[in-house]
Amino acid sequence: MQKMSQRSAPADDMQRLADTGIALLLARIYAARGISDISQLETGLASLHSFSLLKNAPQMAKLLADAIAQNKKLLIVADYDCDGATACAVGLRGLRAFEARVDFIVPNRFEYGYGLTPEIVRLAAKSKPDILITVDNGISSVEGVAEANRLGMQVLVTDHHLPGDALPNALCIVNPNQPGCEFPSKNLAGVGVMFYVLLALRAELRSRGAFVVERASPSPGGRGEPNLGNLLDLVALGTIADVVKLDKNNRILAQQGLLRIRAGRACAGINALLQIAKKDYAKVSSYELGFVVGPRLNAAGRLEDMSLGIDCLLSDDPSEASKIADKLDSLNRERRSIEANMQEAALAALDNINPAESSSLAMFDETWHQGVIGILASRLKDKFHRPVIAFARAQTGELKGSGRSIPGLHLRDALDLLSKRHPHLLQKFGGHAMAAGLSIKEEHFAEFQSAFESVAHSLLSPADLTRIIETDGELNEADFSLDIARSLEQQVWGQGFPQPVFEGEFTVDNQRVVGEKHLKLKLSVHQNSFDAIRFFSTESMPRRIHAAYKLAVNEYNGKSTLQLLIEHWEAIPSTDTGESLR
Q: Would you say 243 and 494 are in contact if contact means Cβ atoms under 8 Å apart?
């Protein structure tokens, strides 16, 4: 079941924003997202929270500065998604700029699984590093850190995932979600945490006189101070692609990165990935990072080895980056094909099941690809508005699961509750409120299915299981403009700060299927006619509809026009002949 609901925009907040000169429509949109003061919209780097507030960041900076001075060998242990890849690239680029001796390793998800496992530690030990640095993982790697300590390697953990009952015995941990950390933004992505560690390291090296003061006589061995702002394109990509909440701090990181990309100052890898997708870097938005660049990088980790994606982000040679981007694009096309087949199989399996009668979905098919189950879970979650866990058989014989949730059910907490009720079921698990990973024995699948449904049913109300399509209300006639659409596309939107969706009544003047899977429309309102499109749907619409939609700029043959992207629609009874917006 779905229904539309208009977001509440406090009148006082809206007026306060409008009084500063912000357009009334934008003031309404911002107020509905919790913005009550114009200072909350500042995007300058000076408004970022200080690294000094991030627990253990200054201490880790000292450890890294000492390691650099002693020429110790550092090895970054990355994760195999876009956040992990960008965090690794930021760490490598930043540490090398500080003249550290550093390399990286990324686990193959099919052979080693997630995080700093004892197996990946033993593999890392072959290159004889002094220090292992985890990025986007490590907070739950109790056994892996213990193995590293046993083998004589120190471990520095940088992560953003929620910790378990016990922390690993690492030399130092930086994670805004660890106990005792008072960092105001708990929503940093893994790449954001690594960026903050580099900010702390630069300050530590500065205090040690490691950099040449501008216009001063160079000191022996001195070097110029690296501009860490040059890494913000990667920080923006990882932050948006990991779908972390875009609080003020994350919006600053994302906006600054987007500005650098639009100015042509992105790394060769990001530029190559935009070019292969035929996207203009000067017009890039958070959409392109989240749905164009991110999936192409993720395809490497899903189907092969994320080191390919990391190599793309590390390359400074446009020709080399282009070749890697082409390989990533091919992998992404293969991933889409696999995903389509898996989704078809999942929907077929649901033919005799009514998801509306359950509070969750847990599915397994022996033909499913382990690297794509996360996307499948996300698609099914979107379609049925239920928490979903999709399983695939791993090389070890156990089942690997990837879950996606809906508002109202914190997935990691739900799995924690399940593990307490059924201690034998979960081999391991971890994750966030909205996404989690786990492993179970194949013979326990049916029992897990029942247990997960029981937990979900106890935690979710009927209201939680109703999809609410939140809108920003109706638009005035003057707001249907190309300038407003362009202005909205320039903003940073994402998780926790959603792109505006509007609603209204329209007359459907014309409709036709294009590309065999999209519905192209001509809609009219206020005696004006607008192009519109409903992606991935060919269902015919009645003469009158009440629609939820986004404003978009359609670029075609060098011409820019306003286009409405239809998100949801409901038929208006034929007895309603009114032509105006409600």
A: yes
